Model the fold of this input.
Amino acid sequence: MEKDLLSILDLSQEEILHLVDWSLKLKDLGNRGIPHRPLVGKTLGLLFEKPSTRTRVSFQAGMYQLGGEVIFMSPSELQIGRGETVADTARVLSRYLDIVALRTYRHETIEEFATHASIPVINALSDRFHPCQVLADLVTIQETLGNWRGIKVAFVGDGNNVAASWINLAARLNLEVVLATPPGYEPPQDTLETAQREGARVQITHDATQAVEGAQVVYTDVWVSMGQDREREERIRALAPYQVTPQLMEIAGPRAIFMHCLPAHRGEEVVDEVIDGPRSAVWDQAENRLHLQKALMLMLLEQI
Ligand code: CP
Ligand code: NVA
Done:
């Protein structure tokens, strides 16, 4: 049966390490201008319900670099927008495409699509998880800090899809994740329970200062994720004490790096001085989405 990536928990530790290694190899080949086109004749479908800059363009550019083709689809242009079921759409698209990435509001939509698809399905972000993001972040940590083993990642802010994927990653790898979030903004209980069952070093606190002490990575994301605009005011009020400032970075220590999956809402979850500062890894993070997703497509298409 074909392999999917709906959440980090679909991958073994070995597969994650293989992806990181290959991302760095592909990045090096790219930097040296050496063409690598093993996916000639293959087609990637991108079916996105929500906007995207990094994920869409890096998948698209990545597939072109590997020799393949891409078809971008939004639901309003497909019959799915007029009521054709997700299951039927998955069955039909599987007859045309070799691999597909979906960005949806509800995670269940990707699960349902994957159940009925006969090609590899990638979660390109859902309300629950953003696995491609944290895998690429691991590449950035490896490059920037030299190692991710044993590090402490302080995720400061909303316990959203990116935070949940970090918690999943802690269930697979030897790293510690401390999430500082206001009461009521924790990730879903089942994500935490699964991680705890797998022996993950995950802690939830309401104190941003405590979370960042001794952390090598201070990570944040927007306070209002796509699809949550109606809660904007209430979220900004609740999350205001969790802004990443130079003072918070000071507490983390002089060698801690700042990470953000982007897009950033400057002046909300992070201030300019931090995101534009010397310890910010955000542009490398964005670049590494390209290399990681190339490695991911090669792995799911059994080329590596
Ligand atoms: N980080 C990320 O997934 O960005 P986009 O929403 O621009 O794809
Ligand atoms: N948590 C954000 C991530 C964007 C890449 C969202 O879901 O909108």
